[in-house]
Amino acid sequence: MKAAERRDAIIKKLKNSAEPLSGAALAQELGVSRQVIVQDISILRAQGNEVLSTNRGYVLQHSEEASRVFKVIHTEEEIRKEFSIIVDCGGRIRDEFVYHKVYGTMRGELNIRSRLDIENYLKQIREGQSRPLMRATSGYHYHTVTAESREILDMIQNKLEECGFLAPLQDYEPVNFRSQSSL
């Protein structure tokens, strides 16, 4: 199989998969090394394909989805509640990032779509595999959330606001993230 055919096959597999696909699984299926898959993913990204890396594998971001960035603040104990609001309304949490006055923007890919994803994330945090980025900024952080429509994003925004999770923007923040409504 030629490289271009293999990359087409990767895109097709990602489009048809409901779950993330690991580099090792793709490599085995396509008869190449995992490193070849990593290189193929880099090329696919350079070609404009929105392939996201998650802790469980690769997923293809669907560009027809609406997207919005929410600035939030809450405790670590409230992560489950915040994430549940988002996924229960039909949203996907693409990432978490913080804007630090000294370090700039620090971002981590999440791709949380379900309560199972939430539990897996919280388990990793509990087991000390990582710490939430919000620790670097006293609980303030941002999430890029995608959904099938702006109306779903509006509903998510209203529910986050009802729970007191939405945070006001500060003068030093570089952009009004709430004004973004699609990718």
Automatic annotation (TrEMBL):
Q: Which SUPFAM superfamilies match?
A: Putative transcriptional regulator TM1602, C-terminal domain, Winged helix' DNA-binding domain
What region holds the Helix-turn-helix type domain?
6-58
Any GO molecular function: metal ion binding
Amino acids binding Ni(2+)? 74, 82, 141, 143
* Keyword entries, A-Z: Metal-binding, Nickel
* InterPro entries in the cross-refs: 3H_dom_sf (IPR035922), 3H_domain (IPR004173), HTH_11 (IPR013196), NadR (IPR026043), WH-like_DNA-bd_sf (IPR036388), WH_DNA-bd_sf (IPR036390)
Metal-binding listed as a keyword: yes
Question: Out of the domains of life, which is the source?
Answer: Bacteria
Which positions fall inside the 3H domain?
A: 71-166
> Carries keyword Metal-binding?
yes
Which PANTHER family does UniProt cross-reference here? TRANSCRIPTION REPRESSOR NIAR-RELATED
What is the protein name for this chain?
Answer: Transcription repressor NadR
